[in-house]
Amino acid sequence: MVTHARRADPAGRGTTGARVSSTSHAHHHPDHQGHSHGHGHSHGLVHQSIRRSREGLRAVAIALAVLGLTTVAQAAVLVASGSVALLADLIHNGGDALTAVPLGIAFLLRSEHAERLAGLAVVAAIFVSACVAGLESVHRLLDPQPPHALGALAAAGAIGFAGNLAAALVRARAGRRLDSPALIADGAHARADAYVSLGVVASAAVVALGLDVGDPVIGLAITLLILRITWQSWRTVRA
């Protein structure tokens, strides 16, 4: 490149040195750009981590708020109706809402290992809720106590369906966007819970038809479904 500069200036004026200097500057400029690019890339990685953490926390907080309101509404109806099917659904919804705590901590720490542990906590919460619901259902089979306020009971089941479905959409979409197995599993869990809540509506219907034993039987059916969800969630988190 220096030889080319000399041929371009046969008069031998001092422009050759200027061109060499320009060439040298052109040579170092990409290095400077490369350094800036590397710095920008590193900054981008940190930014992505923070952004993922914030999006995860936002999704968890929204789902927690939705399920919290759902649980409070169902608890008010439970006092009036005494339905074991509603109790099973209420316990499960409450436990599902509490799974937001370990998930939120995991996203706050921005740790994949913490997310995996949070996923295991979700599975444990699902299993515990199944055990509690199952024991209460067996107790009501041995000591039948038909529910009251059937209209309110059906409404509570509908509230549970809507609340869980909304929470499922928030969690599943965020889980796929953030590539978080724990959040995806929790979203699938909430979606299944939405259909479990329909069992409460079915309980109100069968009791209205005079089949009082239908309420604890549906409670047991919900328990079995929760156990199935436990197994599916365990496989998702483990994989």
Give the % helix. over 70%
Return the string of H and E elements: HHHHHHHH
Query: Whole-number radius of gyration?
Result: 30 Å
CATH architecture: Up-down Bundle
Main CATH class: Mainly Alpha
Report the portion of residues in β strands: under 5%
Label the structural class: mainly alpha
Overall geometric form: elongated
Tell me the number of structural domains. Answer: 1
Give the CA-CA distance, first to last residue: 58 Å
Q: What kind of assembly state do the chains in view correspond to? A: single chain
Main beta-sheet annotation: none
Describe the fold and architecture:
It is a single chain. With 239 residues, the protein is mostly helical. It has one domain (52-238): Alpha-lytic protease prodomain-like, CATH 1.20.1510. It contains 8 helices and no strands. It has helices spanning 2-7, 15-81, 84-98, 100-109, 112-142, 150-178, 181-208, 214-238. Helix 2 runs antiparallel to helix 3 (84-98), helix 2 (15-81) runs antiparallel to helix 4 and helix 6 runs antiparallel to helix 7. The longest helix has 67 residues, at 15-81. It is elongated. The two termini are 58 Å apart. Mean pLDDT is 75; it is low at 1-46.
